[in-house]
Structures
1.
Amino acid sequence: MYVELDGQGPRYAQLIRALKAAILDARLAAGSRLPASRTLARELDVSRNTVLAAYEQLQAEGFLLGRVGSGSYVADVGSRVSPNRRNPGQAPVAPLSPFARRALASTDGVRIPGREHAGLRYNLQYGVPLTNPALASAWRREINRAAERAEFDYPDAQGLPELRARICDYLTRRRGVDAQPEDVLVISGTQQAFALAARVLLDANDTVVLEDPHYRGARQIFLANGLRVRGVRVDADGLVPAALPPRARLAVVTPSHQFPTGALLPLARRVELLEWAAASRAWLIEDDYDGEFRFGGRPLAALKSLDRDGRVIYIGSFSKTLFPALRLGYMVLPASLRAAYRAAKWLEDRGSNTLEQAALANFMANGGFERHLRRAAQTLRARRSAMLAGLARHAGQAVEVVDSNAGMHLTAWLRTGSHADCERLAAHARERGLGLYTIAPYALKVSLRPGLLLGYAGLPSADIEAALRLFGRCLRETGLLA
Amino acid sequence: MYVELDGQGPRYAQLIRALKAAILDARLAAGSRLPASRTLARELDVSRNTVLAAYEQLQAEGFLLGRVGSGSYVADVGSRVSPNRRNPGQAPVAPLSPFARRALASTDGVRIPGREHAGLRYNLQYGVPLTNPALASAWRREINRAAERAEFDYPDAQGLPELRARICDYLTRRRGVDAQPEDVLVISGTQQAFALAARVLLDANDTVVLEDPHYRGARQIFLANGLRVRGVRVDADGLVPAALPPRARLAVVTPSHQFPTGALLPLARRVELLEWAAASRAWLIEDDYDGEFRFGGRPLAALKSLDRDGRVIYIGSFSKTLFPALRLGYMVLPASLRAAYRAAKWLEDRGSNTLEQAALANFMANGGFERHLRRAAQTLRARRSAMLAGLARHAGQAVEVVDSNAGMHLTAWLRTGSHADCERLAAHARERGLGLYTIAPYALKVSLRPGLLLGYAGLPSADIEAALRLFGRCLRETGLLA
């Protein structure tokens, strides 16, 4: 009998695996007798106990019949489970769902972070976190403290009550949002807010309105869920209310800092937006993704603060204010949606990770969070200046920079060239070790100009200068700068 | 002018809130002139600078027109946003989705953990984690170590590569599952596996087969997603293959330890199940929820080890082997499903929390995890003995205990009485401070006998004895024990 051991783990386990495979593939036919343990032990150069242990286990599992000593016979298993075939490849044995097919289509070509940064010298992509040693050590302290009092049981699916209370304090003071802890749902990042909205607020074929351009992750999950997505034009003042379609079930908006153009939606447009939503009986999701960081002008209170009839769902993220690996965000829900969202979160994942929630609640309570925000705002201000100066110096007449005075990124529109040129630029830059995002993938209709999303959170000012020098070189090398 | 400050936070912020509310509710009509700052300051007994700061902010936001000094006028905002109404109540301003209505219906009356344990003296409910000081301190150490090397950027959406590698080692050695790191998807607990399956594998109106009784969370998320759920009878050997319906898209099975009856599915039935799946082109989800803990007999390798054509999706949870607050589990996917699941996880939440993944990878690599499992198995063995002895002593002839020799709970069937009696017993026990789960909610058709799910993980042996003494008293007080 020919049996090959694979050398992984203990000998008897190797033997069990090898014999099972032979039985399942019908190389050892049903009814055939196995060699005596002594014989097989000699053949394989293993101890007899090893063979006995393997035979015993295979008998316990039903692969072998008979008793040790009086001979072991192969049970009738293999040929039925596997009539001499194996499916080594990629072909699914049953169909994938329409969701899966749409999810694959909508994320096709998306580089999933953690992989795309490899080999980059400088990364100016949006979404790279603010690297900050002070935050790292403060956060480590909070984690250690939270670990000492760790809970082991299931968390409150709605979120730790202490954390929800701290989020309310914070929103009242900083964003003018008047929320109670029972209105807050803690989620695993902003993306989950869109995934939940797709289910709780919308049914197949319902229409969702997105600003155009917009956050691509929202579009992708809505499309995967079989929803219709309509884009609404954005100008220097953000979403253009006159362009809203007559009917939709939901609009996702970024009034504090339009994503990605950075525009600030004026009050008059906010009012028009609310009127539109009331007239079409639509929900509004306000994504306040970096409303915390403004470097000039006073911040406007959140749209949610104007919401009198429970129509606005406010979402905030700690991926920008702290860091993305945290996987925590939150929603402020109208009273009418609390129960449905709580049930949905419970059914989706039973609640977000407790340890980080506890650490964050404490970080917010002891003032560490706001101290970090102040420090982060200073750092971002300096990096933003470095980026503006560097763009002026190295990108010269090639780009028009839109100065939104806020956030962690800015947009640079190409003065000449097509979208294809812009993609070519990004590809060339990547080869030279510079990470750039083009704006086109963030839009439904590419009616907008070719341009780039330039993040300045992830690099110290000196590196930003060096990165932009390289950027200038890439512009020249692709013929976009004389 | 009457304006009331709410006393929350700085004075100027209070004043801004109060004025906005008055404008939005049209108590301050569009076009009306606000009092001079000096006048209002005197009226409210605040400094003039407070009033000036508030006016300035309201002008910046567009609520007021005019310039400070020459008088401030109310902009035309309030009456349009809010024509004198407020929606204080629960009525949604737009319809909820069918998913949301079904989610609410399917979770109606579900007590969400973290709330239901309040006031209990003894908790014999299923799902209470194994309390274990050694684990707590070992885990704290791992968290501290992981926090020192914390990553800040987005995680790999599929799960930390180190953790996926450790899970593969573990499954090969302990469960006979031959998996590669690229087959593994790290998820936020088992519940997410069902939520993802509902989307990736199934479309509206597809049929899912569940063992009956089964894990309720799976049924709820499938129902919420608009799927048809069919139950299949379970006997002392687990799922009865002959009872499988001719067609279904997916079956969820618990071959190692049927949930909740504890039965171990024999090899012959495993083979029949695989044959059924091949004939109906169905996927199989193997929920190996506590396959790690067996106290007698040898463990059978996982069903997945028999899967030759990429049909079985294996799911494991760290909620049972470690603790539920961790919110981590994993799936082993056939090659044909990897890309679709990765896209789905990316679109749902961008990946699970990194810190715990890193801590867990290290805990598994340095042997701490298996050490914990060995210790936990000893503890569970002792607690299980205490429970069996206590039931024999105090519940006498009232219950028939099914001894599955595995896991963290057992089932106790009432010898007399109806399902209503069983519910009455649980309610009475709760009043006396004893937490019990009845089995009925875990079944689709309550064709099974009335019984209880008794968890023994959460209490030391002495408390189990005391809890069962109380249980005996409750049985007598409800007339179920003479």
Note: Residues 119-129+377-477 of chain B form a domain with the Aspartate Aminotransferase, domain 1 fold (CATH 3.90.1150.10).
2.
Amino acid sequence: MACDKDCGKKCVGCLFDYETPVMLVISSKRVGAVFRLIQMLIIAYVIVYECWIQQNYQETDSVVSSVSTKVKGTAVTNTSVLGVHVWDVAEYIIPPQGENSFFVLTNMIVTPAQMQSRCPEVPGPTTVCLSDSDCRSGYSNVRGSGVQTGLCVNYSASVKTCEVLSWCPLENDTEIPEPALLEAAEDFTVLIKNSIHYPKFKFRKQNILPHINSTYLKNCTFNRKTDPECPIFRMGDMLEEAGEDFRNMAVKGGAMGILLDWTCDLDMKEQLCVPKYTFSRLDNKNSESDAAHGYNFRYAKYFKNSENTETRTLVKAYGIRFDVIVFGKAGKFSTVQAIIHIGATLSFLSLVNAVCDWFVLNFMEKKNYYKKHKFIHLDKMEDTDNSIGSTSYGTQ
Amino acid sequence: MACDKDCGKKCVGCLFDYETPVMLVISSKRVGAVFRLIQMLIIAYVIVYECWIQQNYQETDSVVSSVSTKVKGTAVTNTSVLGVHVWDVAEYIIPPQGENSFFVLTNMIVTPAQMQSRCPEVPGPTTVCLSDSDCRSGYSNVRGSGVQTGLCVNYSASVKTCEVLSWCPLENDTEIPEPALLEAAEDFTVLIKNSIHYPKFKFRKQNILPHINSTYLKNCTFNRKTDPECPIFRMGDMLEEAGEDFRNMAVKGGAMGILLDWTCDLDMKEQLCVPKYTFSRLDNKNSESDAAHGYNFRYAKYFKNSENTETRTLVKAYGIRFDVIVFGKAGKFSTVQAIIHIGATLSFLSLVNAVCDWFVLNFMEKKNYYKKHKFIHLDKMEDTDNSIGSTSYGTQ
Amino acid sequence: MACDKDCGKKCVGCLFDYETPVMLVISSKRVGAVFRLIQMLIIAYVIVYECWIQQNYQETDSVVSSVSTKVKGTAVTNTSVLGVHVWDVAEYIIPPQGENSFFVLTNMIVTPAQMQSRCPEVPGPTTVCLSDSDCRSGYSNVRGSGVQTGLCVNYSASVKTCEVLSWCPLENDTEIPEPALLEAAEDFTVLIKNSIHYPKFKFRKQNILPHINSTYLKNCTFNRKTDPECPIFRMGDMLEEAGEDFRNMAVKGGAMGILLDWTCDLDMKEQLCVPKYTFSRLDNKNSESDAAHGYNFRYAKYFKNSENTETRTLVKAYGIRFDVIVFGKAGKFSTVQAIIHIGATLSFLSLVNAVCDWFVLNFMEKKNYYKKHKFIHLDKMEDTDNSIGSTSYGTQ
């Protein structure tokens, strides 16, 4: 750059020309103060925000995790349909695998001894009929219970509905048992096993901390104050922490989140890297539309009777689905990261001059004097170079 | 910096020395234009790209979501094996829980009354035999159906195969029913309930919008034009939107994705934050290898016959797996973010001078004149300082 | 800026004033060398780190994937409870759907013919009793097997325990079969079908590569050396690669991860974008507490006996859960990205001068001479401008 076209071989020397701007030094407390202040602010920002809060000097990795859950507890129900019945894990946990998402049965409508046959539809706007002409043989309403046979038969003494081919007798889910049949589920406990892995840092840990022995594990229950490290959670407690009422939620069901936060600063001691447990309701409880309220699904147990024809017990299961959600971000010092981030924010310093110049040249009473020395106006000396070149500093 | 070694106590004053570069002002339309132009470009870039498109002034959070699904519909099949059979949700949805991934049975091969016993293998390259010597007792081929007994027995009048200990009779899945048995599944509907949560912004919402009442919900079906907010989707419609043919896919099965995009700008009105529904096939339909084509699995229903021996009905289930995939990113104005990003991009402005200098000093006819004033060559005045120091501006 | 207050209309012209700093050119090999060196370092950093390693010139997208799995294999067990029994996929894979997470049964404790009735608790610290007074009618211990009837009955000749209402007889899981009953699972294979999608780049691919034909697929087994592209994995091989012993793990179960890494540089040929398979144990094998060791759950098969009362076969299933974890990040050249990143790092160059100045003005023997010319001290010429303005360079 600093080399004329006609300098030929000398150009190699240019490589070693070092250019540095000529600086005007203004010794003014006022300006200096502003200048230093802004510099301080930026350096403070770099230290406080970039380093301390954001820890941008670290490289991060996100968690890889494996969860397994095991629910414990039994409940007894006494219903007309089932009589006295004891419910254990194998029966009320669906699916049974104990993965990170499990459903706890809390309420149900049981329809036993269903068989493939014909029966009158449950009365409703689309199913009530007066004569066979109101029913279309072979038609199956997507919101109905089966395929219409075309007949209009008595549902009750007063009501006639279209006959359908289906699993009969049909389920009647008009009223939900209240209080919930398995309210006792409030006392059930779930053991959560969670192993996490930060691949980039070869860091492995599990929520069952090394110092927890099996005897403690057999008897403890999580409690934020007394047992914050016990990985066994009582259903009722979890809902309470989430601000929900178990007895209330048990009736129509819902979805709960068990959140494990594994955010760790691996520059610290490993012992400090422990999961934070939080609980929150995932579905929307105050839903305006009943149709969208609660959590339930239907499943069936299939049997064959003595005549070898298939029968089934249909269960409309209401309950609480628990999702174990593991998340987190680990950070560790990284030279590269540090250089990039610190450097990037230092380049802010270049902005300081802009601000100060603006201040100096517009708001100081000596501003014109400063301008005169800061700026060298070329346009004022078109004619000859040498003479004016020098006097420019004098006269302007 | 601007302070000599021997300035001793004066040095404190240095703190308030403000240094600002001496500038050469070139009043030339040509240069000025280039200069301003580049400045404009960068500022435009900051505004358009950084702010408008990327919205880098926002801090973002990613969605936490909870999904539950409920399928409705019934279908009737009439097969030699099962006779007339009505299929309802409890039977054709696997698993029944109604989580974010559910499988709809559309086609099947049923093998009833299987029992632990011995029977000839299904003929195949590895199973056909001529004499017992071709079969190894106790050997179980990983791709076979059971454990060989060592005998070679008649599969049919013409073919002999190794006898195996297994659930007999063995399933014969050589031909798949076509058209699919549960083609009626095309009319099934699924209600998708999705509650989302942006923790950082304490923002909660569900796909069933507040103004949707339950009566509407009972009768509506999603339609991009007429009912874009109805969360009830007809199977056939979803596949159609994804450009698939239901009747075709129903035969061998496949995997579909129901995507909910919750990307929201929370600086806007909350009402504007609604999910966008899209549908796409997840598996590869035009798979070159049959083995990898479609979607199917086997499950069994277990019974005990009058002699109290276990029998089962094996079902090879073909069908469509629907995965509800919720994603999204919410943004909200953040002062810190704004400062960082705007500042960072402003530091680009420092590059403008580099470009302009290069232009001015190489492509303007007055370039040598400009150079003369821009650069002060020290090397040309090694001998004495005082004199040359001043004249340097004059002579060079 | 370079325009005086009183320049009125001329100010428009100011728009075209171009300001460029006046530079001091120091032709010194020493300084020049340092200067160029630092420049080189930064440019090298940009090229090597930003471009080559980090590929920051690319815009990235993360993978959307769909996985389905199919396990093959049969095993035979001969136990007192079940007699000779052949296990096939429909029986040992739970759940059967073949999703991205599946459980392979390797060991079990079977309790057949359970019925709702009364039986003595399994002896334990909380269940052993001497008289009825030790048992509370209606009380159900969360870690117990049922609801106490209030009676204290003989469990064995020597031990008395509280009687409970439950599924009787109770399971006795004190000793686990060793070696595992389904050790043969070591030879089972799983076919993994994985279709991935990079939405931003409209890029689709599946792990079953185009050139793989179905005949190969029918017979191959994954092997890092001989068959690195075969998507069929032998259980034993996977555990071996993960450094685990199958026979050992089969007894108490565990969790395995099958990781598919789809990281791709889409600027390269598409053929180069293939999944990398790795296997690792997800749960913590050397767990200090037995309670947290292995992987097991209970499920039941329900029957109705001739008297139409419900009976069930309870299975405590030990086994290996395989999670197929698909991850990856695709990158493609993007002009915008390139500009941002290169530009951002170039702004580092502004830091070079700071460093060099510091070097020049403090460590060169001619430093005072340089300072004299670099800095123009205004404070030394308060009185008159013209005269001193020029001589200032000479005298100071």
Note: Residues 1-8, 380-396 of chain B have pLDDT under 50 and may be disordered.
